[in-house]
Write a structure and sequence with these properties.
Blueprint lengths: L9 H27 L5 H23 L5 H23 L6 H23 L10
Helix pairs in contact: 1-2, 1-4, 2-3, 3-4
Length: 131
């Protein structure tokens, strides 16, 4: 018998959306930074690409919410939030010169908050309390 899908709660739904928006903002930031070919943006580009990948993966895993991946959701959301915070901090160093870094930092901070809220809404095994 296939595993029954788990129900979604508001923090998880918000985190899924924030992850996808953040991934898009990070890719835009990295791509625009590459066009500017500034050596000072190398760390920013790498963090933005890593963050985009983490957000895409975390958002997709939260969207699936199957019993098979439930135990991974909480640590994935927490790791995604940590990476988003690191990316936002790096982008903050460049906001005066690059508007795309400001947009990326804002999206990263929003995603970090959403992922932390989703992680808190999940029990230690990745399930909603009482499930």
């Amino acid at each position: 018998m296939p595993a029954r899908p788990l129900r979604f709660d508001a923090p998880v739904l918000h985190a899924i959306e924030a992850c996808h928006l953040c991934a898009e903002a990070c890719i835009l930031c990295a791509d625009t930074s590459l066009d500017e070919a500034a050596a000072s943006l190398a760390r920013c580009i790498r963090l933005a690409l890593d963050c985009a990948e983490a957000c895409s993966t975390t958002g997709a895993a939260m969207a699936r919410r199957t019993a098979a991946n439930a135990a991974l959701l909480r640590p994935m959301a927490e790791t995604c939030a940590t990476l988003c915070e690191a990316c936002a901090a790096e982008c903050d160093l460049h906001v005066d010169e690059h508007d795309h870094c400001r947009l990326c930092a804002e999206a990263c901070r929003a995603c970090a908050r959403a992922c932390r809220a989703a992680a808190m809404s999940l029990g230690p095994n990745g399930l909603l309390p009482g499930k």
